[in-house]
Amino acid sequence: MICGACPEKRCILLYWLLLVALLAATFLPLPRLPVCQFKALTGLPCPGCGLTRSMMAISRGRFAQAYAYHPFGFVLYLILLTAVLLMGWQLCLPAGRCLITAEQALYFGTRVLIAVFVPLYVFGFVRMLLV
After folding, report:
1. Which of 98, 24, 77 has its CA nearest to residue 67?
2. For residues 119 and 78, what is the distance between their CA atoms, to the nearest angstrom?
């Protein structure tokens, strides 16, 4: 995906795994998911409680239900969808052509992680206080 970041075969495998996961979330029935271990021990929801259900509901077009499960599901779903599209685009480019360099990906990826996970954990902490 990123020039010099990984061998081509691993990139293709990762792309197909992400694509299959996205399609499975759309078409397979909702599984009965195990209770979060943090919630089982404390009785409080962890910052990520509901994210899997939220993303699966988004895949099915159930946006109100997805928001009720976890509002950050939309952000993470968009990141996953963008990654799948960019990886697919990169695989269609001729050999040697790159969308971004490894340094650019590290710079951008770090900022995205901070921008997503800091608010996610603040939200999770506030949600724990309100429960």
Report:
1. 77
2. 16
CA separation for the pair 128, 131 (Å, rounded): 5
- Give the side-chain half-sphere CA count within 13 A for 31: 8
- Residue range 44-83, pLDDT digits in tens: 888 888 888 898 889 889 999 999 999 999 998 988 888 7
Please state the pTM of the whole predicted model: 0.70
What residues does each domain of the chain span? 8-130
Rounded to whole angstroms, the Cα distance separating 109 from 30 reads 30
131, 31 Cβ separation under 8 angstroms: no
| pLDDT for res 74 | 94
**Each residue's pLDDT tens digit, 26-48:** 777 766 767 788 888 888 888 88
